[in-house]
Amino acid sequence: xxxxxxxxxxxxxxxxxxxxVAARTVSKWIDSGRLAGYRIPGxxxxxxxxxxxxxxxxxxxxxxxxxxxxxxxxxLVVDADRETAKALASxxxxxxxxxxxxxxxxxxxxxxxxxxxxRWIIADTSLGLGEVTxxxxxxxSTGTGARLxxxxxxxxxxxxxxxxxxxxxxxFRKPFTxxxxxxxxxxxxxxxx
Length: 193
Prior knowledge:
Blueprint: E1 9-11, H1 12-19, H2 23-32, E2 38-39, E3 46-49, H3 50-60, E4 74-78, H4 82-95, E5 99-103, H5 106-116, E6 120-124, H6 129-142, E7 147-152, H7 157-166, E8 168-173, H8 178-192
Parallel strand pairs: 4-5, 4-6, 6-7, 7-8
Antiparallel strand pairs: 1-3, 2-3
Helix pairs in contact: 1-2, 5-6, 6-7
């Protein structure tokens, strides 16, 4: 079971534990519109996204017993090969203080982005060049400020230019080292301020 601070969607009980209140109080906050949340269709249960809770805690100044994840740099690794994606994600999470998640399709990445709000998306061209450029266009259209890094075995100069034009902030040619990825992500984030 995931710790509440690592989940992107929380139950009212988890929110209550974080905010040191009763679950019924959280339900009242949701019902009154003070805390953004939603009901699960066909159920009385409610859910709250991590982002909504972070905003609520920030806006109300309510003390919490569990640190929220606001300010933690999040990275989403997108690769058609789940094992490769998990290996890179594990290495990145172990090497840095980043929270890292994995998706295996561009569509799943888009869904994951909605609740996870990654600062970086690292996509492999094993998804297909069209999928990666489509993901780049979607990132730009959402205005989230997420940055895209692309990894792949080989790129023609035209493909690299197309990826950069689509919005890729970094391109990694395989084989690359984890240290290269960490340095580029850190350098680009520092430059972005």
